[in-house]
Write a structure and sequence with these properties.
single chain; mainly beta; two-stranded antiparallel sheet; 9 strands; 10% helix; Vago-like; SVWC_dom; secreted; signal
Length: 116
């Protein structure tokens, strides 16, 4: 079984919106078995496949992107759960939209928006 090292760090961005970032560490065994060039990132996770340095790709099954780093690790970032008060509501994003447009949307009553 292939070992996928996946580290997730949760951080607070703004207004109760939680986002996540993670890293898929370079796996030289997996790279060799798929004959990946030394200057390319690679992972089978969510169909990321092969990426060049700095190249970004949206993950196939979530609202997140992977970016190929100089050390050939893959940096991941995505949106997660959000919290709002009673004056606002959370609308689901469309998983088919590009990141970050696929994330949840927060909609508040006009009176709340005028206070910001």
């Amino acid at each position: 079984m292939k070992l996928l090292v996946f580290t997730i760090i949760f951080g607070l961005f703004c207004h109760g919106t939680m986002a996540w970032v993670g890293i898929i560490l370079r796996n030289d065994t997996e790279r060799a078995s798929h004959k990946i060039p030394d200057n390319r990132c690679f992972s089978l996770y969510q169909d990321i496949g092969e990426l060049g340095f700095g190249e970004r790709k949206k993950l196939s099954e979530s609202c997140a992107i992977a970016t190929c780093q100089p050390n050939l690790d893959l940096a991941l970032e995505g949106c997660s759960t959000v919290a709002v008060d009673g004056e606002c509501q959370i609308l689901d994003g469309d998983i088919n939209d590009p990141f970050p447009d696929c994330c949840y949307k927060i909609v508040c009553k006009e009176s709340i928006l005028n206070k910001i």
